[in-house]
Amino acid sequence: xxxxxxxxxxxxxxxxxxxxxxxxxxxxxxxxxxxxxxxxxxxxxxxxxxxxxxxxxxxxxxxxxxxxxxxxxxxxxxxxxxxxxxxxxxxxxxxxxxxxxxxxxxxxxxxxxxxxxxxxxxxxxxxxxxxxxxxxxxxxxxxxxxxxxxxxxxxxxxxxxxxxxxxxxxxxxxxxxxxxxxxxxxxxxxxxxxxxxxxxxxxxxxxxxxxxxxxxxxxxxxxxxxxxxxxxxxxxxxxxxxxxxxxxxxxxxxxxxxxxxxxxxxxxxxxxxxxxxxxxxxxxxxxxxxxxxxxxxxxxxxxxxxxxxxxxxxxxxxxxxxxxxxxxxxxxxxxxxxxxxxxxxxxxxxxxxxxxxxxxxxxxxxxxxxxxxxxxxxxxxxxxxxxxxxxxxxxxxxxxxxxxxxxxxxxxxxxxxxxxxxxxxxxxxxxxxxxxxxxxxxxxx
Length: 445
Prior knowledge:
Layout: H1 9-21, H2 26-33, H3 37-51, H4 88-101, H5 109-115, H6 120-127, H7 130-136, H8 143-169, E1 183-189, H9 199-212, E2 216-219, H10 241-258, E3 263-267, H11 270-281, H12 287-290, H13 298-302, E4 309-312, H14 322-329, E5 333-336, E6 341-344, E7 356-358, E8 365-371, E9 375-381, E10 401-408, E11 413-420, E12 425-428, E13 431-434
Parallel strand pairs: 1-2, 2-3, 3-4, 6-7, 7-9
Antiparallel strand pairs: 1-10, 5-6, 8-9, 10-11, 12-13
Helix pairs in contact: 1-2, 1-3, 6-7, 8-11, 9-10
């Protein structure tokens, strides 16, 4: 079968004659024909093989130093390859011809420059960019078709996210455990970050739950860390998704065993949102990472049924850009005792004028407030459970800690008891705790 780039016989004969007329000089013949000398050499070999034609004289290719140079003119602008009389359709035909040389080859600008017989000035006066040149030749999709493809993908993804919205929102308020006592206690922790959690913090949180027996426990966002889905650069060789999921399962199991009668609440943070988004989209680039989670659903991932957990997840998964996602995540909060307490992951929650706590920034800050309903009150930004070190920021400036909120349900007055466990020792309700030697304060100071 003849190759795709085989010339018609009359063109083949013209090229052979040009070499004879040039006395065997490929360079001189190429200049006379207005083509590249290497292209002429390759075409002579093809012509001889398929037509049996070859120059009557022995032809040679001069070394570069023997060939007249076009000083200051780039290779792509070689005058020998410029065709002033070519139309846009001639240029398109040439691009199609080069594509047919190797149909499996991705045609780059440089590949076309080497294998075509026209200079860039021949085609770019009609098309401007090589991308548009390929669009006009219908080698790649037009702008309109490509935009339509993106829109189809976007809306297909939105359909999946809407189904995920329905699934996750049905767990809010499913396992309410109302208590009639006047004085009640809420244990609140934020930003545990699964396997990155400080073991001292984890021990104190579970033991405090066991001793205080709070009516409600609120895990206020970012129970998971999941660097696999973080915007910060991570080493994929260190990914171990199942260990992180199992850490969360064990933590939730110990909390439920410590407080079998407590109402357990998880507020969706940005890390949980990101995980569910990837799971919902089945991100192709992360199929290997997500393989361990195959078959997991929202309730099985968070053990919502097994440990009877209310999941607060109002954020719309169809949010498209970073700004919209942040706006949606601010909808994730829980109000307790007839709007007497509010807990949400982001500090902006304090602007609601209700006593409560947030997390996210891993630093303990207290803001005073006043309300005719609640009187003087406090809003706490909690320290985290994450160890006080991180490769992507100044983790030594973080603090570790959690909160006990005691509320008089009749007067709606709240007393907060913040527990700072950033250091080597901690006192909670008169009980003295010290870090184990195996749990050093991990910071970068």
